[in-house]
Amino acid sequence: MKYARLTKEQFEELHQEFINFLATQSITGEEWKEIKADKPEVAEQELDVFSDLVWEGVLNKAEYLEHFSPNQIYLFKITELTINLIAIEVKNEAVDVTTRHGYAWLQQNLMDDRVSLYTSAKNMSDDRNKDIFALIQQGAVITKGDLYNFFEKHLNLS
User: Fold this and answer.
1) Distance from C-alpha of 75 to C-alpha of 143, rounded to nearest angstrom
2) Distance (Å, rounded) from C-alpha 97 to C-alpha 88?
3) DSSP one-letter code for 126
4) How far apart are CA 83 and CA 128, in angstroms?
């Protein structure tokens, strides 16, 4: 398995897609029940293959990621060659940017001395999707990039 197995909830959401996946392998619903009962290791392999296919599809489309922690925000823009980062750090113990109140404070105090903005870029490895997946495993989520684009304009990076 290249990525991670989907959760039970994700499999439930993708129930029809999983049925279609099994159909492409000429596995009927009845055969799937038999496989699960008689050959659980084969069933596990099918779940893993399907999970990797779903992850590949999602990661291929990913262009922006965000990761919030109480005093930092990491905004990523994925290009063909690089992962660009805009990092916002709040050096005010009373502010937690993961809360509505803390985020509002950040919006109103962006130019405060206790707010630092950093930018960085690193080259993509040979496996783009694995690089993106590693960020997701660390807590990043895929976004449409609104926040990244806001800060990119604010920092005159474009």
Assistant:
1) 10
2) 10
3) S
4) 9
Residue 8 structure tokens: 């039970």
Q: What are residue 137's DSSP bridge partners?
A: none
For residue 45, give both structure tokens: 């392999």
Distance, in Å, from the CA atom of 31 to the CA atom of 15, rounded to the nearest integer, reads: 16
Q: What is the pLDDT of residues 14-71, one digit of tens each?
A: 999 999 999 998 999 899 999 999 999 999 999 999 999 999 999 999 999 999 999 9
Q: What is the DSSP letter of 39?
A: -
CA distances 16 to 1, 10, 12, 23, 105, Å, are 22, 12, 9, 10, 44
pLDDT digits 0-9 by tens, 123-138: 999 999 999 999 999 9
- Find, among 105, 117, 101, the residue nearest to 150 by Cα: 117
Which pTM was predicted? 0.86
Rounded Cα gap, residues 119 and 86, in angstroms: 5
Residues 6+ apart with CB under 8 A from 131: 83, 124, 125
Residue 82: name the closest of 119, 124, 40, 49 by CA.
124
Helix (H) or strand (E) holding 66: strand 64-69
